[in-house]
Design goal:
Layout lengths: L3 H6 L2 H11 L3 E21 L2 E20 L5 E13 L7 H19 L5
Antiparallel strand pairs: 1-2, 2-3
Length: 117
């Protein structure tokens, strides 16, 4: 069974109409998926006792989809990641981890567009 986003990416009439409306020969769209990837235990020493603390892990995947604005057809689809990160402490929010994961994935996304000066 096809994923729901595949129907959107393959909607040739929609993408052609969008390309005509904005007079753009190339449309870049895609998906950014940020999801919990379980938890991992970390042992900490608190005084004479060892304590097990569970830290959440998150995963980030990016899919870039290039669509022709002229004919509405998908030209290329490129998946990057996943990259995974564990919260270093109990004060780190999921949003902070998202931005850290995006920082890790950004060079791969920029590399798709060629070398930068």
């Amino acid at each position: 069974s096809a994923k729901p986003e595949e129907f959107v990416f393959n909607d040739v009439a929609f993408w052609k109409r969008l390309g005509e409306e904005y007079r753009q020969p190339l449309i870049l769209t895609g998906i950014v998926a940020f999801e919990r990837a379980g938890s991992q235990s970390v042992e900490r020493q608190i005084g004479p006792r060892a304590v097990t603390v569970w830290r959440p892990r998150f995963r980030l995947r990016v899919r870039l989809v290039f669509i022709s604005g002229r004919n509405g057809e998908m030209l290329e689809s490129l998946s990057l990641g996943p990259v995974t990160m564990q919260a270093p402490d109990d004060r780190t929010s999921a949003l902070a981890l998202y931005f850290q994961l995006m920082d890790r994935l950004t060079p791969a996304v920029l590399a798709v567009f060629g070398p930068t000066s």
